Amino acid sequence: xxxxxxxTLRQWCTEVELIDVSLNKQYWSMEIGLKYDKxxxxxxxxxxxxxxxxxxxxxxxxxELIDICIAGIAGAKTYRLSIKFKEDRxxxxxxxxxxxxxxxxxxxxxxxxxxxxxxxxRKEVFDTFIKLTPKITPIxxxxxxxxxxxxxxxxxDALSMYLRDHQIKAKPLIKILKxxxxxxKKTFKKQFQYYSKKILNKKPEYYDDLYxxxxxxxxxxxxGFKKIDGIKQIKKAMREMGLNPNKIKVDTAxxxxxxxxxxxxxxxxxxxxxLSYKPENPLNDANSMFHEFGHGIHESSIxxxxxxxxxxxxxxxLAETFSTFFEHLMTxxxxxIEEMKFEPEYAKKLIRRINFMKLFGVSFYTGNSLFRIAxxxxxxxxxxxxxxxxxxxxxxxxxxxxxxxxxxxxILPSSLMYVPSYMVAEIQQEKIKNKLxxxxxxxxxxxxxxxxxxxxxxxxxxxxxxxxxxKLTRKDINNYVKSITRKI
Length: 488
Ligand SMILES: [Zn+2]
Description:
By secondary structure, the protein is mainly alpha-helical. 62% of the residues lie in helices and 5% in strands.
């Protein structure tokens, strides 16, 4: 019998990527509410698992692939738990007392319901859902603990891998988060009081969460966006910078089972990158399209000749750097006046409110991040998580919020790390933008040269300079806080 030859690294990558692409297509269909094949997913997940295990047995490098394979194994072994968690959350977090589209309000329709409900109804649903969290606690616990065990088998944990991806150690990351938190807290509290009085005519309360306020605060500004087509605008801006957004495919259909929030999904980097969104209102749509197209242009600009593990961005901080970079175009005064043709007062009001929401995000997400880091770093017991979460939010937001809320969040219970990425990415994108402003002026988005510089940061995938978050300094954090608290 002829002995089977061990595949080269290149052959292994080709094989793994083929499976990735098929799997991505299935998950994409699932997320946009089309038919998908559960059997096929199971088969592909199994193949992917085998290939990852094979790699860890037979190869010692590249180091990046070792981490990717461990994460892949954990993912393949827990994907059923992830699907079950989503199903459980839909079935168990619901109340018959209130209806949305003639159906009991469930976790999936909670935000849409909250946008239209009275203050009392909103509080009631919030309290009910908090009370119902013990029904989903076992599945979240199982998911986290199974992952913990799998990572431990390979002598690592989710935090260590996350830190390696972001080229930063735990201590400096915690320091960045704490500086950011402490610098923003006072202004946040003051502004939260102000906007709460102005918009809701009451004091801020625990059930006025980021996702509710984010909708409420822009309500009286939506009419100003009537003529704005977010997709057209962001594509135009990108083209003027010499970038090519045409390769990004967008799915705008409104299917009942489609995931409600907009997202970017790279099927194959850089040749097949897709976006999905359900139209809400032109203001929110523009905001999310600026963000998602930022992801899209990043993924589709990566050099196709790079090896698999450098092309497929594994650092969420790097991914969010480019999405927030483009999202922040909507806080550039000159851009709003010249490109969106807004009146000066309207533009200023919009910037002030977007910046307040960024500040809200900092207060909320620094707390989320420090909680998540503590879970891994301090080996928190699952039963102590709620208490710790409440403590971190009290520190970051200055409010008492029920600790079980983290289990109802859309990222915290389903992702092992992720949340600090938003924070480091926000600081990183402001750092990049500051450089562009100095070189090309306040209208940097009109400069092809500025576009070239961005492309230079996007093209190398994981080898990008912007992937190194250890280089963020106190000054960079200060500059970011200044940018979102500036008077305008
Ligand atoms: Zn994003």
